[in-house]
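Because discrete structure vocabularies remain unfamiliar, we turn briefly to a single example record, giving the amino acid sequence and backbone structure tokens:
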Amino acid sequence: MFLVCDTEVDHDVYGYLPRALRGLLPDHEQYHVPTRDETPPLDGVDAVVVTGSTAGVYEADDRPWIHRAAAFVRQVVDREIPTLGVCFGHQLVNDALGGRVGHRGLTARLVEADLADDPLFRGVSPTLPMVHGDHVTHTGDGMEPIASAGYYPYLATRHVDAPVWTTQYHPEFTADLLPRIERDFGWEGTRDFADVTTERTVANFCRLAGVDS
């Protein structure tokens, strides 16, 4: 079973990003973490994706579901279940494993990144569409950086032992979503997405997880 942990708290306004991500994935079960009182069961789960959210991991005392989500992350790492964390998911995984996350101000633009030679990035251009305000400032235990940019040294991470990857960028963020992103968050610089191939991240993860995309 492929499990998508949707962490967006305001689906009426920002739910289009998790929906776009789910549209790139194979058949899956969806679990909306903020509205549930327990973590999802892992029996029979073959792969996990943790979506983005307009919440911040440092809000856990006011949003108890974040504590539950962090405990869930530690379980999937311990069980070595293939996992991809996206944006908030990137921050959650690192925070759950002892890293740190801080607010650094909104970035909403195309960024030229330095991508490591990692199978998650096969066919992925280093031109990445970014929309986020929080940064991983220290990686979690066992997590190592696999992508960076001038303003952000931990743009993506990978666990050294478990099949766990995280990206600050949204692989589902295509040119079609730019008008909504621009309306909701603003946008800086070029609108030319001709070199953006971040969607391939999802297919690469599915291949690495042994799940048909």
The domain at 2-209 is CATH 3.40.50.880 (Rossmann fold).
